[in-house]
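Sequence only, no structure available. Ideas?
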Amino acid sequence: MYSILIDDKENGKQKSTAAGVKKCVKDRELHHGLYRKILQGPVVINETETSPEDHYIHQMTFRSKNHTIYTVDQCKVGLTRYDDKRWILEDGVTTRPHGHYLNTTE
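Reply:
I predicted one. Tokens follow.
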């Protein structure tokens, strides 16, 4: 996931991605400020507080099973700061893939 603000003389534009989220939902709900808030916001340890670490979205999709078409209302995590496929280094920004020879747990 990423979001980039493009400096335009007339109006600022945003280029963003979100895997598994429909384009209309992404354009309507996910904006650059929300990407920054999710990635750089404070970490909430207490489970009773609301967590700013995940942003849930609702979207409607069409599905087909055995030639029968129906609609599905999905509630899923649209944005999250956690990446389970990368090893985050000490600076908190640089990452390497899991299994990299320089990654050590010692």
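The two ends are 30 Å apart (CA to CA).
Hope that gets you unstuck.
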